[in-house]
Amino acid sequence: MNPTPPASCQLAGSGAIIKFIDMNARNEKYILNVKINGISRKEVLDDIKIFLLSGSQHYIVTLNPEMVVEAQKNPHFKDVINRADRSIADGIGIIFANKFLNDDSLPQRIGGIDLMLAICASDFIKNKKIYLLGAGKGIAEKTAKVLRNKYPNVNIVGAGEGIPAQITNDKLQMTNKFTVSNTQHIISSKKTEYNRLNNELIHRINDAKPDVLFVAFGAPKQEMWIYENIKKIPSIRLAIGVGGSFDFISGKIKRAPRIMQKFGLEWLWRLIQEPKRINRICNATVKFSWLVLRSKIQKIVITSRP
Question: Sign of the C-alpha dihedral, residues 45, 146, 228, 57?
């Protein structure tokens, strides 16, 4: 995790230590004060290989425009993203915004599902244990079955849906001081229930002793949950929030055709399949574009002052 000096210095061999320190801030850029690392898929996989060999814990954020919008009104979430070991571009809007604001190109878009599958297909995952957490009832288990059949190197030691969505929503609201509107008694009751279920969940994961944890709660829940709980699961070397990846891998939702993926139109495909996502899509397109444009105008105004 980025806020502390890299405990990965425990890696055997001075060459490995030097390599890790040199890449600690891999090409960091910022979009609306939210961190993004300008690295390719190969580079992030190289980093992950080293993370898994380290004696410390790491988490990766797969950043999309909707998350950047959320981060503008949720300082805690922004901090969680900015403290991540890597924040990679999952969304064509991030690629365009970086070019527009920073006059620089990101190597490529790396979707959460694509990163997850690349890890499962890698040689370095062979002797590592994986836990799948999140999505709807039975989805994580179906995802595990698909991955085991497709990737012989994968060792999935556990899979489950986690904490019910309503309770995690309540917990999310309690972490944001601007959204708490209930009485103190109700808040305390919900927090107690969340903590009880979360402790049971942590216990189940710890029993499995995984090295890698894929969390599919959706943003910002998954990133905040990882940040708040990773230290309670000492075996974890890498945690990644993967959004709706389990739904796609399990076959619950059909992924966009390759041509739409290539041109960054997966959001349109999801909207066609799930019209109820219209508000989220609005955040990821209209609102995000406006915030980026406003930031650019402000930058021009400031730099043009005598």
Answer: negative
Domain ranges, residue 108: 7-251
pLDDT computed for residue 190 by the predictor:
75
> Are 7 and 230 contacting, i.e. CB atoms less than 8 angstroms apart?
no
- The answer as to whether 270 is a domain residue is no
pLDDT band at 114 (very low <50, low <70, confident <90, very high): very high
Structure tokens at 95: 């690629």
In a domain, 84, yes or no: yes
Is the bond preceding 234 in cis, omega lying within 30 degrees of 0? no
The residue length of the chain stands at: 306
Q: How many domains does the chain have?
A: 1
**Which of 1-10, 21-30, 111-120, 270-279 bottoms out in mean pLDDT, i.e. has the lowest?**
1-10
Q: Residue type for 158, please?
A: G
Q: Are 74 and 32 in contact (CB under 8 A)?
A: no
Where residue 30 falls among pLDDT bands split at 50, 70, 90?
Answer: very high
Tell me if 233 is assigned to some domain.
yes
The pTM of this model reads 0.85
Residue 154 has what pLDDT? 95
Beta strands in the chain (DSSP E): 28-31, 34-37, 58-63, 86-89, 129-134, 155-160, 212-216, 238-241
Q: For residue 188, is it within any domain?
A: yes
d(CA 241, CA 226): 8
Tokens of 153: 């190197």
Beta-carbon count within 10 A of 131 CB = 25
